[in-house]
Amino acid sequence: MAEQREYVFWHSGNFSALQLELMLYLGYLKFIDEKQLSKEPLIMDALVIKKDPDVEIEKNIGRIFREHNLIEFKSEKDFLSVSDYKKVAMGYAGIYAAFEDVDLSDMTITFIVNKKPVKLFKYLARRGFSIKEVESGIYYLEGEHFPVQVIEIKKLDADANIYLRSLRSDMTLEEAEKLVSELIKHNAWELASPLLNNVTEANAKIFKEVLDMSNETAKEFAEILRRKGTLDDLIEETKLEGKLEGKLEGKLEGKLENKQETALNMLQKGLDTELIADCVKMPVEWVQSLRV
């Protein structure tokens, strides 16, 4: 399982979580996945259009919305660079406005990231941008021709933004159980299916622990997975993960004459940096430095 975390394709889960976060406004918003901007392969991650421009979105991630809202997702292992920002804010936005005959004043851009883009913020500050964290994990950038926000999902409120916060491979048992309970409460399984596929793949062991609980949430969750045909897959994934971790821990017990060589070999096999750090008894930052 640790091997798979590097390769979870989070886009479908991101698009699903975005809709779940704004489910109260589904009647007023039009969600377009991978909006193609031209005849060439130039595609934005998502587009949210307010069907009624007068409707005000009270949900924290949507308060900034105007009529046309461009969304860019960055995966868990990726970061928002200066070039990424320019591509969307100066490229996609301008092309979309021109092709769709939309005023820039009617547009917004939202970047959804796992890691706070510190270098980008410093770059924008030097350019005279104002960067304000309006609430935990939500930053407004002022300086463009249209409103821009950056959403750092891990800092979002755990109750207000449970779906976006789940787009990680390090969910806790409490977070996983809470996500399942919320989906049961809203009966939103069809809308949540891509998100659930992503998070159970990335957090198989944790969701197996949810299934092992002796409560109604676990029973309903197991029934949902049976209907989806993914219950056996989740159980099998946790068995494979357990075997891999057991093998690695056994191999690395005792003294290691060359921790660096061992860690590099594990990195080459695509194993998770946190798992490697735990196995060789070194800080995660040390393991990450070996990637350079």
What does this entry show, briefly?
This protein is an alpha/beta fold and 292 residues long.
Task: Explain how this protein is built.
49% of the residues lie in helices and 13% in strands. It has 292 residues and is α/β, with parallel strands linked by helices. Strands 1-2-3-4-7-6-5 form a seven-stranded mixed β-sheet, with helices on both faces. The longest helix has 21 residues, at 231-251.
How many domains make up the 3D coordinates?
3
Strand-and-helix sequence, N→C? Answer: HHEEEHEHEEEHHHHHHHHH
Oligomeric state of the chains present here? single chain
Largest sheet: 7 strands, mixed
Number of helices: 13
Write the layout of secondary structure elements.
Elements: H1 2-5, H2 11-21, E1 29-33, E2 46-50, E3 68-73, H3 82-100, E4 107-113, H4 118-126, E5 130-135, E6 138-142, E7 148-152, H5 162-165, H6 173-186, H7 189-202, H8 204-212, H9 216-228, H10 231-251, H11 259-268, H12 273-280, H13 284-289
Parallel strand pairs: 3-4, 4-7
Antiparallel strand pairs: 1-2, 2-3, 5-6, 6-7
Helix pairs in contact: 2-7, 6-9, 7-8, 8-10, 11-12
List keywords for this structure.
single chain; 292 residues; 3 domains; 7 strands
